[in-house]
Amino acid sequence: MKKGYPSREEAERILNESARGTQGRWPEHSRTCAMCAEKIAAAAGMDPDKAYVLGLLHDIGRRNGPGQLAHVYFGWKYMNELGWHDCAKICLTHSFSVQEIRMYAGRFDITEEQQKEMNDALTACTFDEYDWLIQLCDAISGASGVITIENRLGDIAERYNGYPQEKWDRVYELKEYFEKRMGADLYQITCGGKTSEVY
Fold first, then answer.
1. In CA terms, which of 19, 67, 152, 198 is 20 to 30 Å from 159?
2. Which residues contact 81 (CB under 8 A, 6 or more apart)?
């Protein structure tokens, strides 16, 4: 039976091909996310290879351009088309630490029909430790390296004109959850305590 995610080599190929001709530093952000996910997973008793691949491809919807909610929708659709259903789920869930579409911080730049399709899928999801892991890693991953939650979410709030407090609080809950599992500080595990000052 086919796994729900590709090998690391195939994931790298997908990212590299998808990044060609696109704008922004999302590929670098994705690589930081993958690195963080791998390290946390190894320390928390999860599968580091799976975590790495899910982190690497969580933003793959940006291959379609600089969309906001659109990157979630098109990443989810693209990974499902390729048959990588675990990756598709992460593309869908990574922006929703609070499992409600209204909590998205950014423009709803897809059609109402697409929003309904996405919301139905999101509502039907059962989140697991990999969804939580990538949500956390997304919140500490800059293009230049690991960034504190405060700085990362502050950057998102500035770019998207706000960030829901409920989601902010949930990210800190995820930090506490994984630190307990690892028995170590999040930033010590991911970057030796040396975070980047800027995205």
1. 19
2. none
| 68-81 pLDDT tens trace | 999 999 999 999 99
63 inside domain:
yes
Mean pLDDT of the chain: 93
Instruction: Name beta bridge partners: 196.
Output: 147
Residue 130 DSSP SS3: helix
168 located within any domain: yes
Contact predicate 118/72, CB 8 Å: yes
Say how far apart CA 108 and CA 68 lie, in whole Å: 7
Question: What pLDDT does residue 83 have?
Answer: 96
In the chain, the number of structural domains is 1
Give the mean pLDDT of 19-36. 95
Q: List helix spans (H) across 64-164.
A: 69-82, 85-93, 112-124, 129-138, 149-160
Residue with tokens 């060609």: 20
* Cβ neighbours around 148 below 10 Å, total: 16
* Mean pLDDT score, 74-100: 97
Number of Cβ atoms within 10 Å of the Cβ of 102: 9
Question: In residues, how long is the chain?
Answer: 199
Q: Is residue 199 part of a domain?
A: no
Closest CA to 110 of 79, 138, 77, 135: 77
When mean pLDDT is compared across 19-28, 83-92, 190-199, the lowest value belongs to 190-199
C-alpha closest to that of 52 among 10, 21, 99: 10
